[in-house]
Amino acid sequence: MSNILIAYFSRAGENYFGGEIRPVSIGNTKICAELLKESLDADAFEIEMKAPYSDNYRECVAQAREDLQKNHLPELKTMPESIADYDVVILGYPNYCSTIPMPVATFLDAYDFSGKKILPFCTNEGSGMGVSEADIKKYAPGADVEEGLSVNGSKARESKKLLEDWVKKLLG
């Protein structure tokens, strides 16, 4: 087992790409997580909802916004038994409503991240990290949340060097 966990939430279906909505079979965040996994000695865990958001982009946005407004932590399909052996969690997610998707909050809320380093990366089409880093700190008190990386989702497949350089900068 590695001491690094790549935990990520991603969504296929309709996604927003530079002004248009189009379907994708693999979400942008998953693409980035897989690129990181190729480069690192790390374990990976996909954060998946038991009742996923709609594949329809507009419906998904409405569902995600409602969960955020109600501070609803949706149930996940599975959870790691423990994260105790991990010193570093690389946390990937798309920018939903300028922050982390609530399934990511469910994941963070389930564990004690005290003394762990969290490296957040966020896929988006220009909205950046939003307030996600501050929100991660709320759901993972005691964690050392490092400066996040904003990845342009439509360039996810070309982001391997960007991701590798970011991790190298933060972990040495």
UniProtKB/TrEMBL annotation:
Transmembrane stretches, start-end = none
Q: Where is the Flavodoxin-like domain?
A: 26-169
Superkingdom per UniProt: Bacteria
Q: Which InterPro entries match?
A: Flavodoxin/NO_synth (IPR008254), Flavoprotein-like_sf (IPR029039)
Annotated PANTHER family = EXPORTED PROTEIN-RELATED, FLAVODOXIN-LIKE DOMAIN-CONTAINING PROTEIN
State the name under which the record lists this protein: Flavodoxin
Organism lineage string: Bacteria, Bacillati, Bacillota, Clostridia, Lachnospirales
